[in-house]
Amino acid sequence: SGNRGYKSAWIYIPSKIYKSDDFPFQDNEEVIIEIEEGSITISKNDERSRILRNFGIENATLPRLLEIKAKTNRDQPFLYFKDECYSYQDINNNSNKLAHGILELANNLDLKAPKISLLMETCPEFIFTWFGIAKAGCVFIPIDTLLRAKLLEHILKDSDTEVLIIDYKFLRKYLKISKNLPKIKKVLIHNAPDDFNFENYHTNFMSIITSNTQNPKINMHNEDPIEILYSEGVTGKPKGVVFRNVLRAGIALGYELRGIGFDVASKIYCPMSLSSSTAHFFVVLPSIFYDKSLIITEDFNASTFWKEIH
Q: Where is the AMP-dependent synthetase/ligase domain (predicted)?
């Protein structure tokens, strides 16, 4: 309606929807309404929403975020582990080296965007592998190292894992169940001893680390599946949740964490396992987006906790 050079429209929202606890808007809240190709999109216009909107939906993938931050932050430290330190550029380069190796492996195995499970202790290679899998356009499945063999088998079956990357110290656990997992085409072993006898089915993890530090040219959409995260299985077998837009969730949670000092912190200490969803959404992803440095440790140890903090 309107006859003074502008057009306005009333949008009727049934009370059943408006009164629902899931309805995201408040009375008199400022919103943005977009009409495109016959559909109407109503979105919030608060600060958090503006942060997400300004970043750009086309950039809202983990690979794209890594590439943007590698350019803007370059030599700024991102990851600390023991006496090691990796800059934002280092993280992107190491992830790219793995991504190209994963792409080559998938091609050799005739797999398209395979599901890749990771059973590895907390270390920089965990981060590189996670990001490398994402940059290769594959689906990442982190697995809790404390799981018993039967629950490990359940996750590998339920997720349709096709490639497994595993620390050597957990290999015996996997071998107990390997005959029940015919879908797994390749097992990459991390930290294998020098005298380990690799065969065709088992390959050295180091073999997929290439020298190519260029960003892979993979056409990814922000709604493509990127991770499957499993519950701890407290009330039954672990249940998997497919995540697509993990980045937007991490950005939003980082914004909410400002109240406890996230906005002024320069270093974030993470003593928890990197296989947990808490580490992903509350620590790693927000740290990247908000330009923080991340400190990781092999595991939580009460006797060394404060020493590591200092």
A: 67-302
Q: Is 191 left (phi over 0), alpha (psi -120 to 50) or beta?
A: left
Task: Give the contacts of 223 (CB within 8 A, at least 6 positions apart).
Answer: 244, 245
Burial of 216 (0-12, 13-18, 19+ CB in 10 A): middle
What sign results for the dihedral spanned by CA atoms 103, 109, 114, 116?
negative
pTM for this entry: 0.82
Q: Is 200 left (phi over 0), alpha (psi -120 to 50) or beta?
A: alpha
- Does a structural domain hold residue 50? no
3-state secondary structure of 187: strand
User: What DSSP designation does 39 have?
Assistant: E
| C-alpha–C-alpha distance, residues 122 and 275, integer Å | 8
Q: Say which CATH number the domain at 125 has.
A: 3.40.50.980
Q: What pLDDT tens digit does each residue of the chain (310 aa) get?
A: 445 666 666 777 888 888 888 888 887 777 777 777 777 777 777 666 676 676 665 667 899 999 999 999 999 999 999 999 999 999 999 999 999 999 999 999 999 999 999 999 999 999 999 999 999 999 999 999 999 999 999 999 999 999 999 999 999 999 999 999 999 999 999 999 999 999 889 999 999 999 999 999 988 887 788 999 998 877 789 999 998 877 777 777 877 887 777 777 788 999 999 999 999 988 999 899 889 999 999 887 788 788 877 7
> Residue 99 domain-assigned?
yes
- The neighbouring-strand residues paired with 31 are 44
Query: Per the domain annotation, does 35 fall within a domain?
Result: no
Closest CA to 281 of 241, 244, 253, 243: 253
- Based on the structure, what is the number of domains in the chain? 1
The verdict on residue 190 lying in a domain is yes
What is the domain range of residue 269?
57-309
